Amino acid sequence: MGRAVLEASISAGLQPVPICFGGPEDGGKTVEAGGKEIIVHGPSDRENILSSVFEEHPNLIVVDYTLPAAVNDNAELYCKVGVPFVMGTTGGDREKLYKTVADSKVYAVISPQMGKQVVAFLAAMEIMAEQFPGAFSGYSLQVMESHQASKLDTSGTAKAVISCFEKLGVSFDLDEVQLIRDPVQQIEMVGVPEEYLLGHAFHMYHLTSPDGTVSFEFQHNVCGRSIYAEGTVDAILFLAKKVKLKEEKRIYDMIDVLREGNMR
């Protein structure tokens, strides 16, 4: 994901700082992306490194795509240093995450979904849930989501859509989500093209009436990472504007970015 965001940023005319953070085994490595050599630093001295980079680049905005287990520690680091950030990583303790950022007054865009069109779909679902609560009372729900095997948690997008269906009157437990991570099943059962096994997001939500005579199906399938990378760049530009204007509001999501109406 980092490589896709870097390439999209360069294409948009941004100037990425050639530094990133990784695990203990990654420290000292260099990777090439978008024609740039990126230095990878391990976790041992990341606070000092980030502080130094932020001092050298006062307009810096960090982009975070890591793992659920790293969400809270990373947010605490950014807030301690005082650097604005865009976080597309899902999972972690979300309540703690928002409290950490709110207490620090650091500017941030935090969204489990960075794809603009998918966010628009989510916004439409939320409007329907708010205006027509209970419209699907009694209906049963089946949810299947398929992502690359490296994605360990349930999709944040799926959780958000399920939340809307619950407001619409559907009873559903998150444990019922069918997670597809096996490549053979992804090809044969879900229909994921083989070339996108390492980067895709397929979601299906199937509603059935109590008597089984009516059904609704919502589906959104994404191959590759370009939709998220482009949305991330919009989030960076949006947040840079908010920081420059010293806006009172500090925490935003991708719906805020959509509502701004300045997407490329």
UniProtKB/TrEMBL annotation:
Residues 48-114 form the Dihydrodipicolinate reductase N-terminal domain. Transmembrane segments: none annotated. Keywords: Amino-acid biosynthesis, Chloroplast, Diaminopimelate biosynthesis, Lysine biosynthesis, NAD, NADP, Oxidoreductase, Plastid, Transit peptide. InterPro entries: DapB_C, DapB_N, DHDPR_bac, Dihydrodipicolinate_Rdtase_pln, NAD(P)-bd_dom_sf. It is found in: Plastid, Chloroplast. It comes from the Eukaryota. Residues 118-258 form the Dihydrodipicolinate reductase C-terminal domain. Pathway: Amino-acid biosynthesis; L-lysine biosynthesis via DAP pathway; (S)-tetrahydrodipicolinate from L-aspartate: step 4/4. This is 4-hydroxy-tetrahydrodipicolinate reductase. It comes from Solanum chacoense. The lineage of its organism: Eukaryota, Viridiplantae, Streptophyta, Embryophyta, Tracheophyta.
